[in-house]
Design a protein that fits this description.
6 strands, 15% strand, 4 helices, elongated, four-stranded mixed β-sheet, 140 residues, Glutaredoxin, two-stranded antiparallel ribbon
Length: 140
């Protein structure tokens, strides 16, 4: 069992880059495709608490029913926003990574470097061509 977990959407470039950076550290994480296996309410609340962010800060707008549901309106309580995320997991922004060093919404993907317990093992270039890690395993 890995001590690193990623709540992952394989259709998301940021999520794919984050997963690749985790693997570039020599770690094979537990990969939870949260659209197929959404977190329970208890787990989602734990993740929010560990990240120190509000449910509104975790909401994803692009490619979701955010606008149709009117979630940009300030009338929604945190509890109501959590319920919307449970009903529509696509509203949960990603990737969320949990390690012994912390829990973080990894946007941009290289934010994961701040909580990985193991250093990068070699160079890494994101899908868009941006170099993140040089040939010596150092952050650019």
């Amino acid at each position: 069992m890995s001590d690193v977990t990623i709540y992952h959407n394989p259709a998301c470039g940021t999520s794919r880059n984050t997963l690749a950076l985790i693997r570039n550290s020599g770690t094979e994480p537990e990969v939870i495709e949260y659209l197929k296996t959404p977190p329970s309410k208890e787990r989602l609340l734990e993740l929010l608490k560990a990240m120190g962010i509000s449910p509104r800060a975790l909401l994803r707008q692009k490619g979701t029913p955010f606008d149709e549901l009117g979630l940009g309106e300030p009338k929604w309580t945190d509890d109501e926003l959590v319920e919307f995320m449970l009903q529509h997991p696509i509203l949960i922004n990603r990737p969320i990574v949990v390690t012994p060093l912390g829990t973080m919404l990894c946007r941009p993907s290289e934010a994961v470097l701040d909580i990985l317990p193991s250093p990068q093992q070699g160079p890494f270039t994101k899908e868009d061509g941006e170099v993140v890690i040089d040939a010596n395993g150092k952050r650019v």
